[in-house]
Design goal:
Elements: H1 30-47, H2 50-53, E1 57-61, E2 66-73, E3 76-83, E4 91-95, H3 97-105, H4 110-115, E5 120-122, H5 125-137
């Protein structure tokens, strides 16, 4: 039929509008969502005093291969989303967006993420040793992390 709209099983009840886009899925808003999340991580790293650790770090989100570089400057921790890659001497963290979200909201800590293979660190051993401590102190500034019992598997 010319000019008619086919019935879509996932459209809204009155079927006039296109289906809603899942906010957590891939697509044009995925980059902006990931970039905003990385800025939240940068804010929590500033609260955790990344500057005192004296290390710059880069995070690559997989499978997106989106690099974000966190560098300490006079005005705090700067987050450069969609960077070309790490700078020489950076500690590199390889993880996924879901893991970063769980770190930021406090539902997962860095030690658990590393123990379960959800977070990997690369770089010099001395530099790597400081970053998990910073991440352990990194929480969303407006909330405290919930307590987790030993042996609890993260739901990521």
């Amino acid at each position: 039929m010319l000019g008619s709209i086919a019935k879509d099983p996932v459209s809204n009840e009155n079927e006039k509008y296109p289906p809603r886009i899942d906010g957590d899925g891939p697509g044009p808003v995925a980059f902006y969502r990931a970039a905003a999340l990385m800025k939240q991580l940068g804010a929590s790293l500033a609260e955790a005093k990344l500057a005192e650790a004296g290390e710059a770090m880069s995070v690559v989100l997989i499978p997106q291969v989106m690099w974000t570089r966190f560098e300490v400057g006079r005005e705090g921790v700067g987050a450069k989303s969609h960077a070309d890659g790490p700078a020489s001497g950076d500690v590199v963290i390889v993880t996924s967006e879901k893991v970063v979200r769980a770190l930021v909201d406090g539902s997962l800590n860095a030690a658990e993420a590393e123990d379960h293979g959800l977070l990997r660190f690369y770089g010099g051993q001395e530099k790597i040793a400081t970053i998990p401590n910073v991440l352990a102190r990194a929480k969303r500034p407006d909330s405290a992390a919930p307590e987790r019992g030993p042996g609890v598997e993260p739901n990521i």
